[in-house]
Amino acid sequence: MTFAKIERRSLPGEVYDRVLGELVAGSLTPGQALPSERALAEALGVSRPAVREALQRMAHAGLVKVRQGGATTVSDFRRTGGLDILPHLLLPGGDLDVAVARSILEARLAIGPVVAGLAAERHGHTAALPAAVTAIETDTDPVGRQRRALAFWELVVDAADSVAFRLMFNSLRAAYEPALVALSTVMADEVDRVDAYRALAAAITEGDADTARRLAHDLLNHATQALLHAIDLLEGARP
């Protein structure tokens, strides 16, 4: 196991990202002991306080176990980690992990209809939804349309008035945004369906929860199925 030196000095966030990258890549396995703070600081070219703070952050995130007077060991992030590590899983080494992308779209498909139904039932701040749909319609850039669609769903989550779903949305958005360009082809089948967004906005605004849930599922299902098909093609092409 080797660590390249970090160019920017004494930044705990950089240390956190570097060690997490090794964990996600499988270079650090569950139960494995990390090098000492001194050894990590020397390997990464940063100060020991920066390493210590980064390891404390990782411990709070459930990624490592820090024992007083003992070694810091790697945890199984799939059992102990949170949604905040999704961006690292989606683009490990800068390449899109299609299986993780699929799981994110599957999570959207499960959560989106519930949130849309709550937004209709609670009839929150929905006045901005028609303008959000118009913004999707008038943006001709595929990546821009994805951003406009995210803005639409942000309004829906706000109208649902659920802290838990808001935090889930934040994490999924943080994971999804770095992959906008990579997913633009797959997502076109969804973000180009302006009439579907308009119908969903109307159902939410009118307080029709059953219709809102149905329309949200139909809208989100298109991209999910397109990605599943793309993954099947990729797996079929492998030797």
UniProtKB/TrEMBL annotation:
<dbReference type="GO" id="GO:0003677">
    <property type="term" value="F:DNA binding"/>
</dbReference>
<dbReference type="InterPro" id="IPR000524">
    <property type="entry name" value="Tscrpt_reg_HTH_GntR"/>
</dbReference>
<dbReference type="InterPro" id="IPR036390">
    <property type="entry name" value="WH_DNA-bd_sf"/>
</dbReference>
<keyword id="KW-0238">DNA-binding</keyword>
<dbReference type="GO" id="GO:0003700">
    <property type="term" value="F:DNA-binding transcription factor activity"/>
</dbReference>
<feature type="domain" description="HTH gntR-type">
    <location>
        <begin position="9"/>
        <end position="77"/>
    </location>
</feature>
<dbReference type="InterPro" id="IPR008920">
    <property type="entry name" value="TF_FadR/GntR_C"/>
</dbReference>
<dbReference type="Pfam" id="PF07729">
    <property type="entry name" value="FCD"/>
</dbReference>
<dbReference type="InterPro" id="IPR011711">
    <property type="entry name" value="GntR_C"/>
</dbReference>
<protein>
    <submittedName>
        <fullName>GntR family transcriptional regulator</fullName>
    </submittedName>
</protein>
<keyword id="KW-0804">Transcription</keyword>
<dbReference type="Pfam" id="PF00392">
    <property type="entry name" value="GntR"/>
</dbReference>
<dbReference type="InterPro" id="IPR036388">
    <property type="entry name" value="WH-like_DNA-bd_sf"/>
</dbReference>
<keyword id="KW-0805">Transcription regulation</keyword>
